[in-house]
Amino acid sequence: MNFSTHSHCVSPICKENVPCSARRDAIQRRGAKDRTILGVLSDNEQRGRSLSQGSQFSKRSSDTSQLNFPGCASSSSYDVYVEEACEVVLAASGQEVVSDSYKLNAEASALHNDHMRLLLELSSSPCQDASMQSEADDSLIAWDVFCADYAEDIYQNMRESEKRFRARSSYLERHPEITNGMRVILVDWLVEVVEEYKLSSETLHLAVNYLDRFLSCTACVKQGKLQLVGTAALLIAAKYEEIFPPELTEFVYITDSTYTKSQLLRMEDFYLRVLAFKMAAPTINQFLRLFMTIHSVCANTESLAMYIADLSMLEIDPFLQYTPSIVAAGALCLATYTINRSFWPDSLIYFTGYTMAEIMPCLANLHKLYVSAESRPQQAIRDKYKSSKYSRVSWLTPPAVLPLS
C-alpha cells in the first residue's frame, strides 16, 4: 500500500462542528504535516497530478504487499463483488450492474431509520447550535433528561439492533488483496481525519462500522480502492451524525485528490445500496456513553474508557467476535480498574444483565491491546488522548496484570 506526505495540521482555533466554510478557510491556512494517503490507483487520473506536485510514495508496512489469491474474480475485471443482501458488481469502469433480484422496500426502511434515528439522537450529543457547544466532544448532559424513564427501553432496543448490524469477523478471507495491516492503517488514518476536522467520536465509530459491514457484504475489493471505501464510510457517517458535516470537496482534499468527486459519489451510492440504507447502527461508543450515564464516573475514567474503546476498532480479531455492548462493558471495566482498582458495579450488572464472567474474555483481550498500544506503529489514537481535553489518559501506565481468576 502506498502513501504520500501531503497534509495540513490542525489550527488551535478550529472548533467542533463549525460551519464548513469557516472550517475550510482555517484548514487552508494550516502548515504542512505528514498525512497518510492510502491506496493510490494505477489507473487514477489524479495520480499523475499528485506525482507532478511532488508527492512521495513508499511502502508503509510489509503487511501491505499485494497478494494473489486463487479462486477470486480477476481484479482487472471487477473492483467489488457483492455476495449478499443484493447482487451488485462494480465494474472497472465504475458502473454498477444490479440484478433484478435486488429490491428494497424504501418505505419500510425509511420508517425503521426514522425510528432508530430518534432513539440514537437521545444517545448521542445534544442537538444544539454550534456556538453553544462546549469543547467536550462527548458530553453526557442530554442523557440526564431521558435516563429516568427511557434508558432501559433504549438499551434493550440497542441490544436487539446490534445483532443485526454486526460485521463478519472473517470477512478479510474474501478480500485477498487486503490484509489486516492495511485495515489498521486505514482506521488510524480515519482517526487523524476525524481529529483534524473536529468530528465526533460517534462519527468515527459509525464509519468503522460501515467499513466492516461493507467489506463483510462484498468480495475481492482491490487494494487500490481501500481508501476510497474508507473515505466513503466517513462521508456517510459525517452526514448522518454531524450538525455541519464536511463538504464533498473536503473529502477529496483529505485524500490529496487521489479520488474525484464522482468516484466518491458513486461509492457513496454503492455503499447505501449494499447496506440497504441501514445506517443507524448501535456502536461501542453509544453503549459506553449509556453505561457511564447509568453509573457516573470521574473524568479520567470516562476518557480512559473512550480511549480503550477507540483502540478496539483497530483489530478485527478478536474484537469483531464480541458485540459492541460487551466491548463497551470491557472498556469501562478496564478503565475503572486502572483508575480505581474496581471493576463492574452492581448498578450496571442490574441494568445490563452482564456479569463479570461474561465480560472477562473481552476484558482480557482489551488489556493486551491496551498494554501494547504504546509500541504499535499506528499512534493516532494515542496522540488524540494525549491532549488535556481527554485528561491525557494515554500517558497512564496500564496495569501489568488483571485479577481475573
Automatic annotation (TrEMBL):
GO terms for biological process: cell division. InterPro entries: Cyclin, Cyclin-like_dom, Cyclin-like_sf, Cyclin_C-dom, Cyclin_N, Cyclins_cyclin-box. Residues 188-273, 286-368 form the Cyclin-like domain. Residues 282-399 form the Cyclin C-terminal domain. Residues 43-67 are annotated as: Disordered. Keywords: Cell cycle, Cell division, Cyclin. The keyword Cell cycle applies. SMART domains: CYCLIN, Cyclin_C. SUPFAM superfamilies: Cyclin-like. Residues 49-67 have a biased composition (Polar residues). Belongs to the cyclin family. Cyclin AB subfamily. Essential for the control of the cell cycle at the G2/M (mitosis) transition. PANTHER family: CYCLINS. Interacts with the CDK1 protein kinase to form a serine/threonine kinase holoenzyme complex also known as maturation promoting factor (MPF). The cyclin subunit imparts substrate specificity to the complex. This is G2/mitotic-specific cyclin-B2. It comes from Menidia menidia.
